[in-house]
């Protein structure tokens, strides 16, 4: 039915409405943007999969012909002789010899292991740079003799040496525990006079230290005087009470003779000694439980030393020693241990030992610092200089010269030491060469080398170092795994599955000649994410099975398949209403 009023703008028209202008153009722009985004994402993944590893980018590619230890990953000149650096041949692999049972034993020439006697096996220097037996965070390095001399290091030979048995420790003098005394009152009262008002004063036994007024003692004196005119046991009981309150028999007789009670009672020293503490204050109220003075005898002192718990087992009662007083050398003397304390200090992990000192002339005072030396049985062992030990806190180690300038870190167990040398109980044998002097610089170089060693070289495999940095090789030289799957990166939940590739007849010879083939084949299966996308797209295409079996290594083939799938989807979407 036709519209009777075709020119009326308010009339409604029947049938399909014409699309707005520009819809087709915007649909084309939309598909162009989608295809451009897909192409950019594919190129980014392809670049990431085929990028050279960081370790390979910084791997040494150039070296000085006169100083092989000078290497660089880019052309330049040697900082020592200023010669131009030459490219390192890819087949030039440094080889060291290592014990299969003790990987820490490495050297530049063939030989036998000094521990188990097995023949050393050749391995690549890059593979032996890091070993589980080396200290954590370190690696073997190669330094020339001129470079060692430039940093102040030297090479010394570990040799047998006799260590004199000697143990030194710091010590302090202390008061003897035998002459300790504390002064108390036996009745509560008030201090009315102080006779000894300073600490450090030497007093004698029976000397008056203070006087105090006690109502209880004053009342007991009055009762004694009242009962004095009486006969019988009353007088004896009153007298005994005063003596129990601290008065002497002479003081009681003096009170009975005078017939008058004393207002104050004297506080006397119970023993001779030095006043080391005083709490008595004029006018203070004192009780029997409060000490007024503390006295210590100084005619005999103790010398107390703290020894490390690991070395204190060799010290016993009667062990002879020699003490040297740092402030007064003329008082040096021989001593003997009379007590080893049966406990270890929790804060210092040390054991205290005690030695008595005679001090009749009062030349020594408590708190004097001293150094005590004990003579122990001598021992013989492998010795290295003290500056050859690198002690990072967890386990000490040394750098052993394996020959050819190769320095290998090796953990050691230390023993006795003297002013210049330290005994190595385990880790180094006599005749081996170690680095001494400026070892902190060698250790810094080793830790920097360990940080740059690729992770694949720490498994101990004897493969050339260049085999792990290759980025191009034939894909057919290595058969692919039978079941190799990886989740899709687009979140669809699909998995790609590749069939084993058929090796070509020339594959064995190519694998033997080119060490990079192994890494390239592995990278094709695990590092290229486009293989997963292409397999998923090909399953929806007509030739899915043939493409999955062929498994091409070229990433552009995968992009073309993905583009073909995208075009088919776009055509299907174009037919939709």
Automatic annotation (TrEMBL):
Boundaries of every CusB-like three alpha-helical bundle domain copy: 216-262
Keywords assigned by UniProt, alphabetized: Transport
Biased composition (Polar residues): 483-494
Domain annotation Heavy metal binding: ranges: 62-87, 96-123
One GO MF term: transition metal ion binding
Domain CusB-like beta-barrel: 303-375
GO terms under biological process: copper ion export; plasma membrane copper ion transport
Domain CzcB-like C-terminal circularly permuted SH3-like: 382-442
Composition-biased stretches (Low complexity): 456-467, 554-565
Domain CusB-like barrel-sandwich hybrid: 181-295
Region named Disordered: 456-577
GO terms under cellular component: outer membrane-bounded periplasmic space
InterPro entries: 3HB_CusB, Beta-barrel_RND_2, BSH_CusB, CzcB_C, HMBD, MFP_Cation_Efflux
Name of the protein: Membrane fusion protein, Cu(I)/Ag(I) efflux system
Organism, as annotated: Nannocystis exedens
């Amino acid at each position: 039915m036709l519209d009777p009023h075709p020119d009326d703008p308010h009339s409604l028209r029947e049938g399909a409405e014409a699309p707005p202008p520009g819809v087709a153009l915007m649909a084309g722009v939309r598909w162009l943007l989608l295809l451009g985004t897909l192409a950019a994402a594919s190129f980014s993944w392809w670049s990431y999969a085929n990028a050279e590893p960081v370790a390979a980018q910084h791997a040494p590619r150039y070296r000085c012909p006169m100083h092989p230890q000078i290497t660089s990953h880019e052309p330049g000149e040697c900082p020592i002789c200023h010669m131009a650096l030459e490219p390192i041949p890819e087949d030039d692999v440094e080889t060291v010899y290592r014990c299969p049972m003790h990987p820490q034993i490495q050297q530049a020439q063939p030989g036998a292991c000094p521990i188990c006697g097995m023949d050393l096996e050749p391995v690549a220097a890059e593979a032996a740079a890091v070993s589980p037996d080396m200290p954590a965070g370190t690696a073997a390095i190669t330094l020339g003799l001129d470079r060692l001399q430039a940093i102040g290091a030297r090479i010394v030979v570990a040799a047998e040496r006799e260590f004199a048995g000697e143990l030194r420790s710091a010590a302090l003098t202390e008061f003897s525990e035998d002459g300790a005394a504390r002064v108390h009152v036996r009745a509560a009262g008030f201090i009315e006079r102080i006779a000894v008002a300073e600490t450090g004063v030497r007093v004698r036994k029976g000397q008056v230290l203070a006087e105090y007024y006690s109502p209880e003692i004053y009342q007991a004196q009055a009762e004694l005087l009242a009962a004095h005119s009486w006969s019988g046991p009353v007088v004896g009981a009153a007298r005994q009470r005063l003596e129990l309150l601290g008065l002497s028999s002479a003081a009681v007789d003096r009170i009975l003779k005078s017939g008058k009670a004393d207002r104050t009672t004297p506080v006397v020293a119970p023993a001779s000694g030095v006043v080391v503490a005083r709490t008595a204050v004029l006018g203070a109220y004192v009780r029997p439980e409060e000490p007024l003075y503390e006295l210590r005898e100084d005619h005999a002192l103790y010398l107390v030393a703290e020894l490390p718990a690991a070395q204190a087992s060799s010290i016993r009662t009667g062990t002879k020693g020699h003490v040297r007083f740092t402030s007064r050398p003329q008082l040096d003397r021989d001593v003997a241990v009379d007590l080893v304390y049966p406990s270890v200090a929790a804060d210092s992990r040390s054991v205290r030992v005690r030695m008595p000192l005679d001090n009749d002339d009062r030349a020594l005072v408590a708190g004097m610092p001293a150094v005590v030396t004990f003579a122990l049985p001598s021992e013989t062992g492998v010795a290295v200089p003290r500056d050859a030990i690198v002690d990072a806190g967890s386990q000490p180690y040394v750098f052993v010269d394996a020959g050819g300038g190769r320095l290998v870190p090796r953990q050691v167990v230390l023993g006795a030491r003297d002013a210049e040398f330290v005994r190595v109980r385990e880790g180094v044998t006599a005749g081996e060469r170690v680095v001494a002097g400026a070892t902190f610089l060698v250790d810094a170089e080793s830790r920097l080398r360990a940080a740059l060693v690729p992770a694949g070289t720490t498994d101990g495999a004897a493969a050339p170092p260049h085999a792990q940095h290759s980025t191009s090789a034939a894909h057919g030289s290595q058969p692919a795994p039978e079941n190799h799957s990886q989740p899709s990166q687009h979140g669809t939940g699909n998995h790609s599955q590749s069939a084993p590739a058929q090796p070509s007849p020339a594959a064995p010879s190519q694998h033997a000649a080119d060490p990079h083939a192994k890494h390239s084949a592995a990278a094709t299966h695990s590092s290229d994410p486009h293989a997963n996308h292409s397999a998923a797209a090909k399953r929806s295409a007509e030739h899915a099975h043939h493409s999955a079996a062929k498994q091409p290594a070229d990433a552009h083939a995968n992009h073309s398949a993905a583009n073909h799938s995208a075009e088919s989807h776009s055509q299907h979407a174009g037919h939709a209403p």
